[in-house]
Amino acid sequence: MPLLDESDINSEIENLPEWNYTEKTITKDYSFDTYLSGIDFVNKLALIAEENNHHPDLSIGWCKVSVTFTSHDQGGVTDDCIKMAKLSEALFIKK
Question: What fold is seen in the domain 6-94?
Fold first, then answer.
């Protein structure tokens, strides 16, 4: 899967609230009412990532989860990263 250029990435994440493109990654911080709600989100996102064979870097804090997508193999953002960001958003809304 080819890398997307910066303008394509910015165009794609324009419709994804609070997603940011920096240093060859797309990232968003999600906030939760409880710590365990964040853990539940991470567990569900991990299953989706496994199904799609595209895994995020995750940072878990108190009622906050930071999700970062990049293609480690290719060194930047691909369509798979955008797809997973959209799936992350859908999962968050569904919670």
Answer: Gyrase A; domain 2 (3.30.1360)
